[in-house]
Amino acid sequence: MERNLDIDSFERLLKDRSDEFKMYPEKRVWHSIYNNIHPGRKWPSVAMSITLIGILLLTGYLNTDTKNAGKRFASQNQHNETKPADPTTSIYIPLLDKKHFNNQPSKPFANNSTLNFSGQSFIDNIEQQDMSSESVNNLQEPPNLVKTLSGVTNKSTGDNLTHEHFISLAKIESTEIAPIKNDPDFKTIPANRPAIFHNKVLIVSLDNSENKIRHQNVNNVTSEKNMVTGSETDLSANDVSLKNKALLSAETISTDKNETLILSDEEKAWVENYAMYNRPAPKKWAGKLGWQMYFTPSVVYRQLKNTISDGADVNQDVAQHPSYGLEIGSGFTYPVLKGLRIRTGLQLNFTMYNSDAFTNSHPVATTITLVSSESHQPYPAYRSTSYSNIDGISTVKLHNETFQISLPVGMDLKIAGNENLQWNIGATIQPTYVMGGKSYLLSSDKRNYIKETSLLNHWNVNAGFETFVSYKTDKGITFQFGPQFRKQLFTTNSKRYIIQEKLNNYGFKFGITKLLK
Amino acid sequence: MTEETMLNGCLENNAAAQEALYMRLSPKMLGVCYRFAKNREDAEDMLQEGFIKVFAQIHQYRNEGALEGWIRRIVVHTCINILKKNKKFSDSVDINYANGIGIREETIPSIMQAKQVVECIRLLPVGYRTVLNLYAVEGYSHKEIGDMLDIEESTSRSQYTRAKAMLEDILIKKNILLKPRTKSGVALTGAVASN
Question: Quick check: ipTM above 0.90?
Answer without folding.
Answer: no
